[in-house]
C-alpha cells in the first residue's frame, strides 16, 4: 500500500479523501491498492461516483487541487498504451451504468459508459435487437470499448463501435457536462441524479443550446473532428465519457460461419480478394494464422485418421507450401434464412471442397492472439498488402508469429513473446513499419511489458498528431486527464 501511504503523508490528502467520500459515499472512495494500476502506474485514490453529477464533482475537486484523473471501466484494457505520467484519482465508471430510451423498435439506445457490453446485449436481445459490436475483451464496458476504439469481427460490415455513435455525454476537465449530437452540435446539460439517469428524463443531447462544438472545432482548428474522433481511442485523455447514444439493429435471423483452411499469407490474399469480389455481403472475414506445430516424426500409415488431411499427407502435400500447421479463413454471413442459405452455397462453391459451413463460430473467433505479458501489435494495411505485412513480420521475427483479425479490411493483431528483449522487439517493430510505410499501413504496439514500452515507440508516425495536440490543448490545457496516455506524450 505504498501509494496509500504516500497519499496520507501529503498535505491535504486526508481532506481530499474526506471530500471524495462525501461525493461518492464512504464505500465508494478509498486509497488505491496495488491492483489499481494504469499500465503499471499506481493510482493514489479510487473514486466510484454514483452518477454524472457526482463524477462532475470529482473532476472539480481534482481541478481545485491540481490532481490528475484517469477513468477506468472494467479494466480489461487498462494496460494498453503508454503509462500516464501520474495517476492521482482513478475514476471508476462502474456506477455510471444503465440503458435508457430504448423502446422496442427504437433505432438507438442511450447507454451508460460503465455498462458492461454483455449486459447491454442481453437487455437488447429481449427486444430482438443488438449493438453490432463484438469486441474481444470479456467483461468490457461500453465506455472502455469506445475509449480504446476496440472492435471485433463485425467491424468488417459495421465499422468500429465509434461508427455506431449517434451522440455522447461527457465531462470535460473542469467537470462540465457536455452533450453532443450526431451532427456535432454541442449542448450544455445538467448532470443527472445520482442514479445516473438524464435530468428530467430527457434524451442525450437535451438542454439549452450552447456554442461548445463551434468553440471546440474553431479554436482547436480541427474541422470535421467529430465526437467519435475526439473521444474514441483517447483513453480518457480528452474527457470522461458518461453515456453514449448508439445505433441498434435487429438480431439477424440466421448466422452461418464458413471455414476454409489456409496455409500461406499469399493464399489468404487470393481467397479474400475472391470473397470480396463475389459480392456476398459478409458480416465478417476473419483470419487465424497460428504458430506452426511440428508434425510427429513417427511412421504412421497415410490413411490413418490421425494424419488424413494434414498438410504433409500425400493427397495434399503437393499443394501445401506453407508451414506444417493449418490456419483458418472464416467468413460470417448474416441475414434471413433463405438468403443466407443461398449465399452460403455460393461461398462454399467459391472456396472449394475444403470449406465447411456451420452455425457456431470457431473457438478462436473474436479473441486476440496475444495473452498477458506478451507484446501485442496491431497492423493496419490495405487488404491487397496484408500478405506482405505478415511476411514482413515473419522475416523480422525470424519465425512465424500468431496473427489473427479482420483480413477483409486489413486489420489484424499479432503477438510477440514476452521473453523477447526490448531491443529485439524494437528492431522487429521498426522493420515491419519500414515495409508498411510504402504501403500506406501502420503498426501500433497495443500492449507490452513495461521494459518494452520504455524502449519502443508505441505509435510510430502519426500524421494526425498536430490535430490531436490542438484538441488536447483546447480540451485539457492543464494536462489533468490521463496525462501522457495519448501519442506524443499528450
From TrEMBL:
PANTHER family: D-LACTATE DEHYDROGENASE, GLYCOLATE OXIDASE SUBUNIT GLCE. Residues 38-251 form the FAD-binding PCMH-type domain. Coiled coil: none annotated. One of its GO terms (molecular function) is FAD binding. Residues 189-208 are annotated as: Disordered. Keywords: FAD, Flavoprotein. This is FAD-binding oxidoreductase. InterPro entries: FAD-bd_PCMH, FAD-bd_PCMH-like_sf, FAD-bd_PCMH_sub2, FAD-linked_Oxase-like_C, Oxid_FAD_bind_N. Gene3D superfamilies: 3.30.465.10. Residues 192-208 have a biased composition (Gly residues). It comes from the Bacteria. Pfam families: FAD_binding_4.
